[in-house]
Write a structure and sequence with these properties.
The protein is globular. The chain has about 100 residues and is mainly beta. The longest helix is centred in the C-terminal third of the chain and has 5 residues. It has a six-stranded antiparallel sheet, with no helix packed on it. The protein is built from three helices and six strands; from the N terminus they run H-E-E-E-E-E-E-H-H.
């Protein structure tokens, strides 16, 4: 069993309800994410997903949602992936007003 980080808050360490969260990235060009609850925003450079493991921001170039099923909690993304970042904050609250205006 993998050790949990000591600096991680207890509420983050607990497994969140819902389907299992899984992220599969192949050659940084094709991604499947399971455990998706909502798509907060998307364009060709950034996709922000609410998952049962926190808010996931996928950044890259020429990003496209190939398939989305919120009923099954699965999204498939094509394009070049530069980074994947998890956060426990609400994405609309964490961004400044200028960032929201110039999306």
């Amino acid at each position: 069993m993998a050790a949990k980080g000591p600096d991680m808050p207890e509420e983050v360490r607990r497994r969140r309800p819902g389907p299992q969260h899984r992220l599969v990235l192949v050659d940084r060009e094709s991604m499947t994410v399971e455990g998706v609850m909502n798509v907060e925003s998307f364009d060709d450079e950034e996709i922000v997903l609410e998952t049962n493991a926190g808010v996931l921001t996928v950044a890259g170039h020429d990003l496209h949602i190939r398939q989305l099923s919120l009923e099954e909690g699965v999204i498939e993304i094509d394009g070049y992936v530069e980074s994947c970042d998890y956060s426990d904050e609400n994405p609309t609250r964490s961004r400044g007003i200028l960032a929201r205006l110039f999306r």
